[in-house]
Amino acid sequence: MRKNQYLSLTFKLAILLGMSLALAGCASFDFMKQKYFPQDTIKSTKVAPQWQAALPQLLPAPALPHDGKLTNLQKFWQQYQDPVLLEVIEAAEKESANIATAKAKITEARTNRINAKAALLPTLDGNFSASRSVQQPDIKYSNLPTGFNSQALSPTSGATNSAQIGAQAAWELDLFGANRSLLNAAKAREDAAQAGWHDARVSIAAEAATSYFNLRFCEMQLAVNRNDAKSRAETARLTEISKNAGFSASGELHLAQASAADANQQLKSQQAQCDLAVKELVALTDLDETVLKQKLQQTPFNPIEDNKTLFTIAEVPAQVIAQRPDIYSAEVDLISAAADIRNNQAARLPKVSLNGSIGYMHLSGAGFSGNGEIWSLGPISITLPIFDGGKRKANVENAEAKYEEAAANYRSKVRNAVKEVENALVTLHSTQDRHPDVLNALNGYEASFAATKEKVQAGFANLIELEENRRNALQALTNSINLLKERNNAWITLYRAVGGGWQGKSQLAEVKISESGLISSPTLNSATSTSTDTKSTVIK
Question: Which residue has the higher pLDDT, 147 or 349?
Fold first, then answer.
């Protein structure tokens, strides 16, 4: 009878095992049909074969800065030969919360990668235990004959001592590669965290440089406004003299005085903007405001002008956007989403776990002792998913939907990267085209001012005409300053749009997050005055 029961139980277990393997086989078949692969998505994302906007032209054509390589753009800021700019960038990076956050993400990603790798390996834990116990107290007998040994009747033999030391191991076999896929995704996330650190450095450097240039150009414009206010005040004074002499109407005087008042308020407004720009730099860098102002006064400003090309970019957009850390992070999101699909698919398949232990034990008590090795193998655990109400399948569908979302996000980031580069190129091309016209206008107004000044000295023109020509030249100088500011900011935008100075995917392992800043302030020669400063002295 017992034999029949045993055979019946064995038969039932065999049927259950067969059904489980059949269901697992169906899940495995679905797994083999996985249609989401990151590399296929990346390759199928269309990128324009060439830039639609014109690339910066070299006038004349010098050797390309840093061999024209994007990977060498860490020296980008040194081309300005401005030690204060370099100091501002370095200080901003030291104080940046974004860079600190990026460093923390690197540590977190490294921890996740180590945990994912550990999931592929067995776990091994050591243990030690010791005990002393009495199973039952000694029983004392009374009314026994004299000389009778009461210990012979006692059911106990005293305390028992035991000590054990050993190691216990457990291992979940990665039969279907789910843990291996998660490890690959964790490695990619760590690289993405490194790329994010570079992205934060590029962003804060661009932000600090933009704030610095805004302050410098604000100071240049402030000098122009100051001269304009003096000119209009002089015109109002001369008009008042002319009106008192009967040569000008009162309406002309009121107009001149209103113009002088308007110029004066514009001067004060410009001064306030410069003061705010200083506050912004101080907040960004934590530099002492008084010290910063002194350095700004002592260091000449050297904007990039005369259509100088700071670096070149590849004509193929795909080669440029591959340098961007945010694009690489989007690729990592695809890898992670694909790993989640594989992991959820593997949850529908059998799992096998193996346990075992080995150790040494010593046991002793009253009248006995012993020691030796102890070990065990097992249990070997096999988990066969049979029925879960569609939970695992739903998890797979959810992971696939998230992959499609990551793919759409990747394509969107690629298009946005191309747009940002195109926009910067359009701005650079526009400033290059407008530069000759702005320069000719400035030279023409300066020549007119000089000619009027000679006519005044010869008695053929009055001082009011001279001030009018002065203001025309000052307005042309303002247009020149604005064009110069727009071009410098366009270079910064392009620098940021092509990924800045980060080192690329193949070199991420060489990056040390303990570096103090993007660049160190090199010893630079004292810069000479710019041509714009020279022009401003002509019309003072």
Answer: 349
Instruction: Indicate the SS3 state at residue 145.
Output: coil
Rounded Cα–Cα distance for residues 409 and 419 (Å): 15
What is the total residue count of the chain?
540
| Cα 495 to Cα 201: distance, rounded to the nearest angstrom | 12
CB 377 within 8 A of CB 356: yes
Q: How far is Cα 223 from Cα 482, in angstroms, rounded to an integer? A: 14
Total number of domains in the chain:
1
| Low-confidence winner among 133-137, 346-350, 364-368, 490-494 (lowest mean pLDDT) | 133-137
83 Cβ contact list (under 8 Å, min separation 6): 299, 521, 522, 524
Is the pLDDT at 475 greater than 60? The verdict is yes
431 close to 489: Cβ distance less than 8 angstroms = no
Burial class (CB in 10 A: 0-12, 13-18, 19+), 157: middle
**CA-atom Rg of the chain in angstroms:** 40
Residues 6+ apart with CB under 8 A from 92: 204, 205, 207, 208, 284, 285
Q: What is the pTM of this model?
A: 0.70
Distances (CA, A) of 272 to 189, 300, 484: 45, 21, 21
Q: What is the CATH number of the domain that holds 46?
A: 1.20.1600.10
- How confident is the model at residue 265, as a pLDDT? 92
462 falls within a domain? yes
- Domain housing 323: 25-123+177-219+272-348+409-538
Residue type, 436: P
Torsion angle of the four alpha carbons 505, 506, 507, 509, in this order, in degrees rounded to the nearest 10: 90
pLDDT in tens, 243-288: 888 887 888 888 889 988 998 999 999 999 999 999 999 998 899 9
* Residue range 137-149, pLDDT digits in tens: 655 556 656 665 5
| pLDDT cut 70: percent of the chain above it | 76
Which run of H or E residues covers position 357?
Answer: strand 351-365
Q: What pLDDT is stored for residue 23 in this prediction? A: 46
Q: What does DSSP assign to residue 305? A: -
Coil, strand or helix at 47: coil
In a domain, 376, yes or no: no
Which candidate, 305, 404, 501, 429, places its Cα nearest to that of 36?
Answer: 404
Cβ-proximal residues to 178 (8 Å cutoff; 6+ apart), any chain: 342, 343, 345, 346, 347
Residue 530 belongs to a domain? yes
Tokens in use for 382?
Answer: 């096999």
Q: How far does Cα 449 stand from its chain's mean position?
A: 51
CA distances (Å), origin 287, targets 214, 274, 519: 17, 17, 17
The HSE-up count of residue 102 (CA atoms within 13 Å, CB side) is: 27
| Residue 263 forms part of a structural domain | no
Give me the phi and psi of 377, to 5 degrees please.
Answer: -125, 120
Per-residue model confidence (pLDDT) at position 540: 38
